[in-house]
Specification:
The chain is built from 3 helices and no strands. It is mainly alpha-helical. It has 2 domains: about 35 residues; about 50 residues. α2 packs antiparallel against α3.
C-alpha cells in the first residue's frame, strides 16, 4: 500500500467518524431541544447570535482569501486556499 493510499484511507475514516458524530449531535439536538444548548425562552438569542456573527465573518474572510489566491494568482498560498474554500 502506498503512502498516498494510506493517507487517503486514514482521512476517509476520520471524516466518516466526524460525520457520524455530527449526525448523532443533530439527532440529540432535535430530541432534547433547547436544553442541549443551555439556552432558555427568556434568552433565546444568546449563543446562536454570537455563532452567526462569528461564522459570517469567518466565511467572508475565507472567501476573500480564496479570491486572492485563485483570481489574482497567488500560487504560493494555494494549499491554504483549498482550506479557505472549504470553510467559506
Amino acid at each position: 500500500m502506498t503512502m498516498a493510499r494510506k493517507t487517503y484511507t486514514w482521512l476517509t475514516v476520520v471524516t466518516g467518524l466526524l460525520g457520524l458524530i455530527g449526525v448523532a449531535s443533530v439527532i440529540y439536538r432535535l430530541l432534547a431541544g433547547m436544553k442541549v444548548t443551555w439556552l432558555s425562552s427568556s434568552v433565546p438569542w444568546g449563543m446562536w447570535v454570537a455563532f452567526y456573527i462569528y461564522f459570517i465573518g469567518l466565511s467572508a474572510g475565507s472567501f476573500l482569501f480564496s479570491t486572492l489566491i485563485y483570481v489574482f494568482g497567488q500560487k504560493e498560498l494555494e494549499k491554504a486556499g483549498r482550506l479557505a474554500l472549504l470553510s467559506a
